[in-house]
Amino acid sequence: MSITVPEQQEGNAWWAKLEDHDFFDQYIGRQFDTGLILGDDIDVVSGATISSTGVALGVYQGRALLADELGESYPAPMEIVKFGIGEILLISGLIMTVLFRTFAVFRKRKWLRYITLTLGLGVLGFWLSRPLSLTNIVAWLIGSPPNLPNNLFLYILVLGVVGLVLLTGKNFYCFWLCPFSAVQEVTYRIGGQIGLKPKPKTYKFLRNIRFLLLWAALMLVFWFTNPSLAVFEPWGTLFSQVGGIDQWLLLILTITFSFFIFSPWCFYICPVGAFLDIVIKVRKGGISLWKKLKVFRVKRLAEDKA
């Protein structure tokens, strides 16, 4: 007996990893009224946590529809929000980053940034393989946030980073907590810190590529309502060792250039950094507009009194 999925919108490399680890075979022989709780009854495939969660949610929803059609009931899965070491370390990293960038006593010690970068590399990168991805962000934008009980880490990561940007107007993730940024800094130092830099006009043009890629990815996601179409960042391939030929090629090229150019992905390609930059600009624009409206209102009241 085997399970066949006729249609899916997951990335081919991630889906193949589920198949290679016999993830779907875990559902064979299960009773209709069993819990099928991910992490308890069903094992998560390491390096494909989001894909595993997506399949589990599909099973829950499909079973609910079937039960409704048959006029039967089944015990709804009682999932507990899982708060563990990963979440604690992530919160600690965010707090340290805010402290190191906010208070003068810490800002003077430039080496403190390497503490949070190391934390990000170890936890978000090699351990959990969960850096902040454009896919995580667009899932919220199209109204399909991940399942909370199995994805508390992503909730803290996305809402924490974006929330801090909205609250303070500063990006506390890029160059501070991003594991792929840490990798590029290591390779840059190994390469002798040559520091090749384009001319000012070329630099400005290259910096805008990020926004073009972000726009293209968002158009695809909104058009097809499929967050997985935004998956093209090379760090997923690096930390999970899963990816198609194009993703491996992009990773190799990025790492190669990072030996001679400081963080080429972060400066010229990263859609996450572009998105956070836009949020910062929108925040500044909103504050500026609010101040102008406030001044206009005061003048209007003064004129009315006169």
UniProtKB/TrEMBL annotation:
Lineage of source species: Bacteria, Bacillati, Chloroflexota, Dehalococcoidia, Dehalococcoidales
Pfam families from the UniProt entry: Fer4_5 (PF12801)
Protein name, as recorded: Transcriptional regulator
InterPro entries in the record: 4Fe4S_Fe-S-bd (IPR017896), Electron_Trans/Redox (IPR051684)
This protein's UniProt keywords: 4Fe-4S, Electron transport, Iron, Iron-sulfur, Membrane, Metal-binding, Transmembrane, Transmembrane helix, Transport
GO cellular component: plasma membrane
Molecular function (Gene Ontology), one example: metal ion binding
Membrane-crossing residue ranges in chain numbering: 80-99, 111-128, 148-167, 209-229, 249-276
4Fe-4S ferredoxin-type domain span: 151-194, 250-286
Coiled-coil segments: none
Domain of life: Bacteria
